[in-house]
Amino acid sequence: MYRIGFVINPVAGMGGAVGLKGTDGNVDEARSLGAKPRAGDRARITLELLKKNRDLQFFTCSGDMGEIALDEAGIPGYMVVFTGKRESTADDTRAAVQKFIDEGLDIILFCGGDGTARDVFSVAGRTIPLLGIPAGVKMYSGIFAITPAAAADLIAVAGAFSLRDAEILDVDEEAYRSGVLETRLFGIARVPVLAGMVQVSKQVFEEADEERAKDEIARFISEVMLPDTLYLLGAGTTTEAIARNLGLPKTLLGVDVIKDGTVVAQDANEKILCDLVKTNTDIRIIISPIGAQGFIFGRGNQQISAAVIRCAGIKNIIVVATPHKLRETPELLVDTGDPELDREFGSSIQVVSGYRIAQRKRIRQMN
Fold first, then answer.
1. pTM over 0.70
2. φ/ψ (deg, to 5) at 159
């Protein structure tokens, strides 16, 4: 019997759709903006794929820290070994992890983001394998399965996997909300891995050639922009270069909207984007993949939700990336939270990589 410690950070990812770029310390603000919990739903995707596996036994926490999701997914025989507070905190997560270690379990499966990963690792260290179900806003660490379904695939083999070292990154959320990405190495965890199932840490490329390539991409995109068309510019330095070429400001780590050379909305959340795409006929989404990880949707840009993408249309998505980034990114990934929409992206997409230069990049279809 493979014994799994399972914990959910119930508020993980709530800040994404409402444009807060993280939930740490901002739960009340996220709720006031209409954010809905999503970690439980992400966890249930994993659990429902495991409910028929009789070789697994789950040890978990009370309420929405694990018990409810296991019950709703139909997982039999789980045990509640930690009772958290009604409004759980990072202290509850750390206490639960200590209980899992005391129980001598085989692995800790958690659902959250980078902050949750740090909380789990701060107690578990390298004494036990860790695996994250991605539910946060950023998830720059290399400890997460690429999707909830991939997490299920890893757990399902009940220990018949290799272990590798994975970086856990500490992202300064206050700086991040101000448009500055500051990270430091928090720790090196032991993570189960099967080929293509676990994401790598985000890479940031800073080279002179990179800047030139971004400028060439920006020049081309600026030339082909259409009048009376709404453009959603995703996060990143490549999309920032596009705005700069137009003489417009850009929220580096947020989503901005422009039309006819004018900024319509800055750092827009999902509600603002939904309202705008519903009232405009011609829409384009310009997005750049996260370096090395390859995600074009589902990491750091949850404001561009499945609903926003469906309104705009997949055919109206423009992916931009420098040649260096594409060389370091073997394939692209999509995790909108809507598996049916993810499949509609097909097996490849064209990526603008220079002035009038594009290359077709494979999209890996996931479960």
1. no
2. 95, -10
